[in-house]
Amino acid sequence: MPTKHLASALLFTAALSACTPDNGTQNTASGSGDKTGSVKLLNVSYDVARDLYKDFNPLFTAEYKKQHNGADIAVQQSHGGSSKQALAVANGLKADVVTMNQGSDIELLVKKGLVKADWQKAFPNNAVPFTSTTVFLVRKGNPKQIKDWNDLTQDNLKIVIANPKVTGNGRYTFLGAYGYGLKANNNDDAKTREYVKKMLSNVEVFENGGRAATTTFVQRNIGDVLITFENEANLSAKQFGNGEFEIVYPKYSVRMDSPVAVVDKVADERGTRQAATEYLNYLWSKPAQELGAKLYLRPADKDVLAAHASELPPMETFNPNDIFGTWDEIMSKYFSDGGVYDQLTVKGK
């Protein structure tokens, strides 16, 4: 297994650190109703979603007060790698809602009896308010001339990604590369494995989350290319990168869905179901969809997406479930101990 660099303790930038709500990525404050009518919710989410919810929460609380005669509501956040966050909820973190980047993370909570099996029917678009895709962030001038997935196997290239074993961001990177390999090699799995193994051999750092990978690439100046979500790459290049980075859009990439769900058992115990449902429903409102688009997330609202076509250009993407099966099948075959990812990861680096 390639050596894992420790996650940087450095802040990405002062501006970026301001995007971290509640003074950290883990906040265990509870969500509950009280006798005064005020409500507290805890949203447990994946790490690079902090920029969205930093701005979304004030929008929602203002609307909630308007709809409920000035009643108080507070939303607190917990951010980290998507699968680690789901495991934390499964192990007792009292989330009222979860907003993840991989359906299997919510399915884990279904298996634990925390979320209802029909959670995808509770909200529009199979409970996915936004999507994204995997792109490449390179340094100014693109000195390594990265144009597509095939360029990631060139000699002496240093890649930074989130660790596919523990993060959704990393898994989408792996599946994006594998899906590209299957298409480029006419579904020849042996040739695809050769390609993916070579690409993984160029990974310099496997970070513990998407935001940690960004920090390593941008702040610590490690690597020639960062593979990450489109919204994270745009925020890095256009808001925090001072013109030092460029985004490369591959011709064919994986689609990332960001599913959401009420944690039914917690919400029912605390009496927060109505507020939790309203909170998630508001993600499909025009203000929220516009906010997501401005932060380079692809909104479910087609009109909003079309209005932001210059920032979110049309791309050919694939749904990983269409190629690799259900998330349970994907996790078992590709990311379990001894699975395809482990088989293709170069040892002793």
UniProtKB/TrEMBL annotation:
Pfam families: SBP_bac_11. The lineage of its organism: Bacteria, Pseudomonadati, Pseudomonadota, Betaproteobacteria, Neisseriales. The keyword Metal-binding does not apply. It comes from the Bacteria. It comes from Neisseria elongata subsp. glycolytica ATCC 29315. One of its GO terms (biological process) is sulfate transmembrane transport. Residues 1-20 form the signal peptide. Keywords: Periplasm, Signal, Transport. InterPro entries: Thiosulph/SO4-bd. This is Sulfate ABC transporter substrate-binding protein.
